Amino acid sequence: MADMPSSSKPPIARESPWWLAPNVTLVVFSLFVLYSIWEIFGHNVGRYQNYLSPYFSPDVGLWLGVPWIPALLVAWIPLGFRASCYYYRREYYRGFFREPAACGIPDRSRQYRGETRPPLVWNNLHRYFLYLALVVVIFLWKDAVDAFWYQGHLDLRLGSFILLADAILLSLYTFSCHAFRHLVGGGLDCFSCQNRARYRYRGWKAISALNQRHGLYAWASMFMVWGTDLYVRLLIIGAIHDPRLF
Amino acid sequence: MSEEMVLSIYRGDANGGQEEEYRVPLETGMVVLDALHYVQAEAAPDLAVRWNCKAAHCGSCSAEVNGRPRLLCKTRLDQYVGQVVHIRPMHAFPIIKDLVTDVSSNYRVAKQIPAFQPRTPAPFTMYQRDVDRVQEFHRCIECFLCQDTCHVLRNHGGTDQYFGPRMMAKVAEWEMHPMDVADRRQFLKDVAGLPMCNVTRCCVDVCPEHIVITDNAIIPLKERVADQYWDPIRALFRRFHRPAEGAVPGAGSDVSSRA
After folding, report:
1. CATH number, position B23
2. Given CB atoms, is A106 within the 8 Å cutoff of chain B?
3. Less packed terminus of chain B by CB within 10 Å, N or C?
4. Of chain A residues 155-194, which have a CB less than 8 A from chain B?
5. ipTM value for the complex
6. Mean pLDDT of A70-79
7. Could you tell me if B180 and B189 are in contact, meaning their C-beta atoms sit under 8 angstroms apart?
8. What is the pLDDT of residues A198-216, one digit of tens each?
């Protein structure tokens, strides 16, 4: 396209406060990444009684007998899933890369390449992180069930419900994923050409409904993982007491 | 006495220009296009603005109001009470005069999109479940506000780099059509510039027809491209599981509703 002469390009009037959302993203994501690094590399234990922190689940370190930084064996899956997630891409392209920070705001860099070169082109591998995240979700539900059972008895404490909420929100985030929507039915052109496709159509419709709130689930599940891990960590170091609810 | 609004309207052409202020009495239900017509009638008969239906159906009156791409006929003036209303042409396209821009680049790239290739000649029976997705894209009025707000077109070389969200909706409409047999994935990756889109969703924010372009067109197309070029497991699966050739809509016995 022929570009218009720069002298004729009008300046951009900006609707305020356009800078608020990208800066909130920048701060919150940075804190989450720093916390994750501290948790993964600073601790070898993520279990308190029948609670297992989501950073350490599944407990691959225990299975393989790896005593050092066991969370690293697992945490790369959910972190990679989030880093390549379409919703998080929108957020970090706005908050960190400023490409663009908000609609109508000029990009920070003039050397924009989109997702054509490494490392950003590797976001196309999102579906592989999804496959692995689906496995992790199964273990999170096992952890949630285990959190209600302690020494062979039903045990209803605050931590039990926190782990349950964590499993629910992470499931909503995972199953509302765009790649999962495509996998279930979005990749089909014709839902009426085969009998089996009706099940995929129903699945696609259900996931499409969930997908409309994918961003909400992305934020809620991130804070839930953060809060759940912090709760378990504070229990491990004895800083708080786990109240029995019933 | 009615309230008076201050409009700061861009006046100029390809050689340059600047904003000029005009005062317009605010009337109940007035939209920005009404105010521009008032300016044309009372103060600046040479003011250029493209419009046609004045009902948000033709997509002609696209411009930027206080920095946001909008249809002038769908933007109420009373939301700007107490502010100066800055009205400028679409930033992503070359200016012809005042608020009129040259959007012909959109038609040029549209011609490059591989057209609909039906498996059998029309007419053919369509089922609602198959057209649910593509009907959304039919709502497009080609106002090109999504093209205007797309930062790739706006800041990084226009449609030479990326055909833009409107064209992705057009491709999706055909690519997801149950009777279409064309494969546009290589075209999307190598020609249309789909990888240049970083899904920041500005196109969805400005669409006056509320088409969810990013989630329902661009991301599904990205996933289809990933199927072909980034997923060796699915490629292996495709070698052993080929869908029945010649399957037509309605071949599944469970179909009950027709569009």
Report:
1. 3.10.20.30
2. yes
3. N
4. 178-179, 182, 186-187, 189-194
5. 0.91
6. 93
7. no
8. 899 999 999 999 999 999 9
Answer yes or no: is A188 within a domain.
no
pLDDT at A159: 96
> Cα distance from A169 to chain B (closest Cα, Å)?
21
Whether residue A97 is contained in a domain is answered as yes
CB contact under 8 A, B93 and A4: yes
* DSSP secondary structure letter of residue B76: B
Which of A8, A192, A199 to mutate against chain B (most B CBs within 10 Å)? Answer: A192
Report the number of distinct structural domains present in chain A.
1
Range of the structural domain that residue A170 is part of: 20-108+115-176+213-236
Closest CA to B180 of B242, B248, B258: B248
Between CA B80 and CA B70 the distance in angstroms is: 14
Place of tokens 């992305």: A218
Nearest CA in chain A to B196: A114
**CB < 8 Å to B17, chain A:** 8, 10
Domain count across chain B: 2
CA distance B61 to B59: 6
Listed range (A7-11, A173-177, B83-87) with the worst mean pLDDT:
A7-11
B chain contacts of residue A96, beta-carbon cutoff 8 Å: none
pLDDT at B247: 66
Average pLDDT by consecutive 10-residue portion of chain B (259 residues)? Answer: 89 95 96 98 97 95 95 96 95 96 96 94 88 92 97 87 96 94 95 96 96 97 95 78 62 48
pLDDT given for residue A151 in this prediction? 87
Q: Does A107 touch chain B (CB under 8 A)?
A: yes
Contact A71/A56 with Cβ under 8 angstroms? yes
Inter-chain contact B155–A211, Cβ cutoff 8 Å?
no
- Which phi and psi (to 5°) does residue B43 adopt? -135, -35
Chain B CB contacts of A115 under 8 Å are 195-198
Tokens of A95: 């908050």
Look at residue A12 in the predicted model and tell me its pLDDT: 52
